[in-house]
Amino acid sequence: MRLVFTFVFIITGFLANAQQIPGKVINAITGEALAYAKISLPQDTPILSKRDGSFQLNLNGKESLKISVSYLGFYTREFTISEKNKSVLLQLYPDYEKLNTVYISSPRNPANKLIEKAIENRKINDPKKALEGFTHQSYSKFLIDNDKNPIQLATDSTNSEIATIVNTARAYLSEKITLHHFNQKQGNKEEVLGLKTAGFKEPVYEVLTMDIYPTSFYEDEYSIFKTEYAGPLAKNALKNYEYRILDTLNTTRPSYLVYFKPKREKVVPGLEGVIYLDTVNYGIQKTEARIIGEIDLEIHEDYEFNPSEEVWLLQKRDIKIRPGSGGKDISVFGGNISLGTIQRRLSISSIFDNDPIDTNLYLDATTVNYNYQLNLSPQIKETSAKIVVEPKANDREPSFWSDNRKEPYTAKDQATAIYVDSIIKTRNIERKIQVKKAMANGYYPLAFWDLELSKLFKYNNFEGIRLGIGGKTNDHISNKFNIGGYFVYGFGDQKAKYNINTSIYLNKSTNTNLKLGYTRDIKEVGSFDYLKAPPKFYLIEPRFVNINFFYNYKQYYAGLEHRIIPQLSSEIRFSQTKVFDVRDYVFLYNGKLYPEYTVSTAGISFSWEPFNNYLKTPESDILIERNYPRITAQIDKGFADVAEGDFNFLRTGLKLEYTIRRLNLSRTEFILEGNYATGTLPLTHTFHAYPNSSRQEAVLKRFSIAGKTSFETMYYNEFYSDRLAMLHMRHQLRPIKFSSFFQPEIVLISRHAIGDIGHKDRHQNIDFKSLDQGYSEVGLEINKIISGFGLSTAYRYGGYHLPGFSQNFALKFTLNIKF
C-alpha cells in the first residue's frame, strides 16, 4: 500500500511538471545567448534567463501566457507562450542608440560607482558587521538527483510501482535543522539539532563537513566546496570583476540589477552572475551566480528586509552542482564512491572504485533561514568546535521534522528512502565508505582486521627488499580496544622485524587511549620522531630507499594519548630501548666503550593547530578544515640507572609549519624546525637534517624521488648535530593551465640548516661534519607533468659548497599522488 501511495504522488508530480516550457533568449543578429535577460510575467515576479540564456516557464494550468522580455541595449519585446509550444526561442534586437549611450557617452562605467558604494556600505549591510550578535535557525536539504528520470511502466502493476520508484528516486538525501549563533567576540557557531541521512544505519556526519554551504557575498573570498572565489563585493572587487547595470526594478524596495563577470579568470577564480542592490543602502537583495568550468555551479540567494535594523537577511539559498569540464572531484563522503560521485579525477582511489559515472547526476543543496533574533549577544557554549551535533540529533520524532521543514517533503523524497536503502545494500556503499576512511590513514579493512598498507613492501640499501604484513583489529572485535602489530623480513640483512601493540580506549570522544607495545626493528641513526606528528601515509618514502646507516633496537613502551581540545592533542610515553649492531660505531663515555647500550626515556609531545575547524559529534571530533600554523613540540628525558638506562640526557624538538594560500591558487609554505639536546648523547640519538642524496659520482646515479622537507644535495651520514635549526621555504606559482588534464605546477625552493655538535671525539669509527658553517640549497620543481609525476632540481651553495658542478647538483623525480 505504501508503494502505491508513493507511486500516485510521483505520477502527480510528473504530470504537473509537464507544463514546464523551456526557452532561450538570444541576440537576433548574432545568435549570442543573452545572460540574465529580464522576463516579466503578468501579476508575478519577473524571472531572469540563466547564464546561457535559458529559462523555464510554468503556465500554471493556463492555455497561454503573455510575457515581456527586456535587456540593456536591446529593444523590449512581448511574446505569447502557449501550451502547444514544446520550447521557445526568443530573439531580441539591439538598440544601437542605447548601446552608444551606455558604452560611448558615459565617461565612467556607472556600475563601478554603484559597486564602490556597495563595498563602502558593507559595514552597515553585512549582518556580521552591522549587528552585535544574532541567532537564527535553518532547514537544509541536500540531495543527489538525476536530470533524466524516465518512468518505465510494466504490465504487472506491482512491478510498475517498483520500477517507477527506482527510476525516479534520487541517489541520496539528507536533511538537517541547525541553530546558528553569532556574536562579535566568538564569531559563528552551529548546533545541529536534527539530522537525517536516508538509507544509512549509522549517521553520516561527513556530509556536514563537505563545505557545500558557502560564505557570504560580502566576504572578500567566497568559499564553496573547498574552492575560494573572489567576492563580487570584496575590497578589491573592481580589480577582479567588471560590472554592468542591466535594469532598475521597481519593487517595495527598488533595486539595481547589476551584472558581474570575472576580469582575470585565468589568474583569480571568480563567479559570473547578477546581484540585486538596494537603491537606498546598497545592500544585497538577491543574487544569482554561476561558474562553468571544472564544475558547473549555480547559486541562487534571496534576502528579506528587516525594517527595525534596516538590514537585508539571507532567507534562502539554493546551490546546484553538475559535472563540468573535468579536474574537480565532487563526492559525498570524502572519497570517490559510486553513490554520490558527480565527477572523478584520475587518482589512486579510483583503482579501488571504477564504477561508471552518471553524467546526469547533480548535487542540490537548499537552505532556508528562519526565526532570526537580532541585536542580541548570544552566549555561545565554550567549545572549540565550529559545528556541534546534539546527542539527540539523529533520533528526532517525525513531529520535529514536520514542525521545522521549510521546504516541501515530496512524494519523490519519500521514495528516496526506499531507493537509497536498496542501493546502499546492492552496491555495498557502507563497505566502500569504510574502505575510504581506512585508506585515508593507510589501512585496508578486511573483516575484523585493518591491513596496514605501508608494511607490505619497502626497499632500502641496508635491508634490500623488505616484505611483511601488519595492521590492527577494528570494532568488529571490540570497540573498547585494539590489538595490532607487524611482521616483516629484510632479504638484504636476512633478519625479521616485528611489533605487537595494543590500544585501550579509555574515552573515545577525547581520543584518550592507553598504549602498550614491544618492537624489534631497525631505525635510522640521528632520526627524531614526534609522537604527535600529523599522521602521514606513504606508498613510497623518498628518503627510505637510500638510507644505509641504521641501528637495531628492541623497545618496550607504554604511553597515554589524550586530546585536550580538538586543536590540541598530547601524548606521554615511557620506553626502554636496547641499541645494538650500529654498524662499526662505538660510543666512548668516561673511558668506557659502548658498542651496545640501553636508553630509558620519558617523553611528552604536543600538536597544536589553533585555527583548525572541527565538527563535534556525540562520538568524536571530525576535522572540517585545516588551517595554519601547525606547531609540534616534544621533550624526551633520558635516565641513567633507571630501567637499566646508561645515559642521562635531554632532547627537545619544535616544529612550526605555516602555509599562505592565495585565490590565484599559488601557495607559499614555511617549515621552521629546531632541535636541541644536552647531556650524554650517543650518535643514534643526535639529529640529522634529512639528507636525501647518495654518494654516487654521476648525477643520474643519484637520481631518486625528492622529499618535501629533505635536503636533496646533502649526502647521507655527512652531518650530525646535537643543536640544529632548519628552514624550508617553498613558493608554488599558480598552475599553468595548458588543458584540463595538463596543468604543471612550478615550485621555487630555498632550504637552510645550521647546527653544531659537542664532544665529537666520543663517536668512534665514524667520520662526519657538523653544520656550524651553515648549509644552503636552492631548488626548482615542476610537478604534475604526467599525472602525479614531475621533476626536481637542487643546487648546494654557501659554506659547504663542493668543488665541481655535479657534486653540488641534484636531479630527481617528484611524486604527488592524490587519494
From TrEMBL:
**UniProt GO molecular function:** carboxypeptidase activity
Alphabetically list the UniProt keywords. Carboxypeptidase, Hydrolase, Protease
**What is the protein name given in its UniProt record?**
Carboxypeptidase
Q: Which source organism does the UniProt entry give?
A: Zunongwangia profunda
